[in-house]
Design brief:
Elements lengths: L5 E4 L3 E3 L3 E2 L13 E2 L6 E3 L7 E7 L3 H26 L4 H34 L5 H29 L6 E2 L2 E2 H12 L5 H10 L4 E3 L12 E3 L2 E3 L2 E7 L4 E7 L2 E7 L15 H11 L1 H6 L2 E7 L4 E8 L2 E8 L5 E9 L9 E5 L2 E6 L6 E8 L8 E4 L2 E5 L5 E5 L5 E7 L2 E7 L8 E2 L5 E2 L4
Parallel strand pairs: 1-12
Antiparallel strand pairs: 2-5, 3-4, 6-12, 7-8, 9-11, 10-11, 13-14, 14-18, 15-16, 16-17, 17-18, 19-20, 20-21, 21-24, 22-23, 22-25, 25-26, 27-28
Length: about 450
């Protein structure tokens, strides 16, 4: 079941992981939290860098869907043209020229997409575009990046018929793989969820455990459409996306300006890059059960994926600056470590809040005084994040700052004011040099 999907958009810096605070029963209110070491470090916004913050919402959007599909059709058309022209000639020289022309176009389009995203963030920050337009634009970029990745693979496939063929002095397969690595920060599971929502494919089954919700439109006797709730915080050109969906918390961070921050020191080879990952993500590194690597100095990016007990982390490092500038995380909610709970009782309602970290998942539980689950409406920072349903439980995405969590059911209201930010953490600021604090 998909309940109260939430997305967070923010600019990024490398910070500590899960938070832990002492429990004070029903009297607990806002107080600082300290980071724990039982989940991965993460990319998040700097304390003074945010330009825009707040919850938004994405829904079925016909015009947005047409834009996504049009971009996809354009990519498919270009590949068909390449296939036809490639098959129409037996000249090795002409085939090599076609491949290089298409490779140059793909690289130019990648540069254009990167600039386009930076422009989209700036326009959202200065009010030129609305939240709806901004979210649609992120989905368009995701779709276009996917098509460019397919196009790069097609070029490599065609190059196999030409012995010894290279692109930019690289084997064609290596060139295509490196383009995929470069496109990675422009794509991700959260952006895919946004595109799915715009197309009207974000559905949940209707059954006895599904709470009625007037905000969800029924599309069939056994399913309904659901909106995607967005929490938006941006700074400069950077963006982070996070969502709670289908029992998982997914999170993407992209901070292109960090690629120019040379304070970390350039990476000479993959061994140096691995050492940098171990330094920036000590918990994830020490607790990973397997690791995957791709990219190289010719790509300009090293990409590593670390798999650990409750999820995985994919991080991207710029080879020239040595800085972490992008990451993706995907964690299972059922295994996600949380802090000591905050609890408050009012009337016949008891609300329990289990926190992780800012823009991470937050578990919200609602019961009566006897401990029986209650279906109630939950708001965070005056924004409705959904209902707890018949099992009395709801996962959402936490905001980056302190906020009031409110539950309402059966005429009663209970609220908890809480802080989501760690008191200290390990960071790389958006403005410049790294700083290390005690974890």
């Amino acid at each position: 079941m998909r309940r109260a999907l939430a997305v967070v958009v923010c600019c990024c810096l490398l910070a500590g992981a899960a938070v832990a605070v002492p429990s004070a029963g029903d009297r607990q209110s806002a107080r600082p939290a300290t980071p724990a070491t039982n989940t991965s470090e993460y990319l998040t916004i700097g304390p003074d860098a945010a330009e825009s913050t707040g919850y938004q919402r994405a829904t079925l959007d016909v015009s947005g869907t047409l834009a996504l599909d049009t971009r996809g059709l354009d990519g498919r058309y270009r590949q068909l043209v390449l296939d036809e022209r490639f098959a129409a000639t037996d000249s090795t020289a002409k085939r090599r020229e076609m491949l290089q022309t298409n490779a140059d176009r793909i690289e130019s389009r990648i540069d254009g997409l990167q600039r386009h995203q930076s422009t989209a963030v700036r326009e959202y920050n200065n009010g030129t575009s609305t939240a709806r337009e901004f979210v649609i634009e992120l989905a368009r970029i995701h779709t276009a990046a996917g098509r460019l990745g397919v196009a790069a693979g097609r070029v490599a496939d065609r190059a196999r018929s030409i012995p010894g063929s290279t692109i930019d002095s690289q084997p064609a397969v290596s060139w295509a793989r490196n383009r995929g690595v470069e496109l990675g920060p422009l794509r991700g599971p959260v952006r895919e969820s946004i595109a799915t929502t715009l197309r009207g494919q974000n559905t949940a089954p209707l059954d006895a455990s599904t709470a009625p919700d007037l905000e969800a439109a029924q599309t069939a006797p056994d399913e309904r459409l659901e909106a995607l709730d967005l929490y938006v915080a941006t700074a400069s050109e950077g963006v982070v996306l996070a969502t709670v969906d289908d029992g998982r918390h997914s999170r993407e961070a992209y901070l292109p300006s960090e690629r120019a921050n040379e304070s970390a020191g350039s990476l000479t080879d993959i061994t140096a890059a691995l050492d940098r990952v171990a330094d920036r993500y000590p918990w994830a590194w020490n607790n990973s059960v397997s690791r995957d690597a791709s990219g190289d100095r010719q790509a300009g990016v090293y990409r590593f994926t670390l798999f650990y007990d409750h999820g995985r982390l994919t991080t991207n490092l710029d080879s020239r600056s040595g800085a972490v500038f992008s990451e993706q995380q995907r964690n299972r909610l059922s295994a996600m470590p949380t802090t000591d709970p905050l609890r408050r009782t009012s009337g016949d309602l008891r609300l329990t809040v289990n926190r992780t970290y800012p823009t991470g998942p937050v578990e919200l539980s609602l019961t009566d005084r006897a401990g029986e689950p209650v279906d109630g409406r939950i708001t965070i920072a005056n924004h409705s994040v959904g209902r707890t349903g018949t099992d009395g439980s709801l996962w959402a995405v936490a905001p980056r700052n302190s906020a009031t969590v409110v539950a309402r059911a059966n005429g009663d209201t209970v609220r908890i004011e809480t802080e989501f930010s760690p008191a200290s953490n390990r960071t790389t600021t958006a403005a410049g040099s790294p700083s290390t604090a005690e974890r």
